[in-house]
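Entry 14. Structure prediction run on the chain below.
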Amino acid sequence: MKKRIWAAIATALGLLAGAGASAAYPEKPIQLIVPYGAGGSTDLLARAVATVAPKYFPQPVVVVNKGGGGGIPGRVEVVRAKPDGYTLLFGWGSGEDLVVPHQRKLPYDLFTDFETVCRLSIHSIALAVPASSPYKSLADLVKAAKGKEYVTASVSTKGASVDVTFLLFGKAAGIKVNTIPGAGGADAITKLVGGHVDFGGGHPSEILPHMKAGRLRALAVALENRDGSIPDVPTFKEQGFDVVTAGSVKGVAAPKGTPKEVIAYLEKKFQEVANDAEFKKIMGDLGQPVDYMNAADYKVWFKKSYDQFGSLYKTLGIETK
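Output returned:
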């Protein structure tokens, strides 16, 4: 009996100690590891978070860029970090998480090496044409394409989310689409603006400046619902084409083993940031929609989107690992 009592006391003390440790969090700055260089959409979002975070976090939220290697080294750094809530992955759910794992083996497991915290934003993939193009709608583009052997589309990378989306559009419309890869998103947009392809596009933040300058016209977005950053642009589905894919997703993750209390704390604080008027204003200026999703819902959405890309690779005959 005494042994059981002492065991119960020891367990209770251990729980209290753990609760105390979690209650003290955070005691030092929290690092947001952005696995890309400065100036990209993920980096800009992270800096918007860091700007508003002092209203809600008692410690600084610091952006740390770990670019290079296709976004993989930055993720590895988070996986190897101590699971104490002070090193977080920013950009959880982008193409390197939803698309690349279908192409090649990675030095970590998406579903066992990370703890999901939340989603903050998701860009659509938008199809656009040069302002001088005769195509005013997807119907115009499809009608013209049916009279050709194929139409061309500029994309940043073969096999990436924009490439998959445009090939899916071709299949849904019954037309042949030849995607032309560039040296990245900026190069793909340059080809499009220059009229070297029939259509192209990317995320709204990439094409919005050209739309405002009158150089591009967006015809469709590939989300289930319209993108808040370009609300006047209809979805593919509104125009009769079953094309829905995840775009550039901006979520937050922590190393596996991070205490549940810490995850819950971060989930709540990031939601407060997402609801902040100043943050929404910054995001609007960046052309990035705020689309918060809690950890539980985001896990489900993440897995569904991951499986969708795997299925699309098979449907479209794209070579995988």
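The mean pLDDT is 89.
Filed with the rest of this week's runs.
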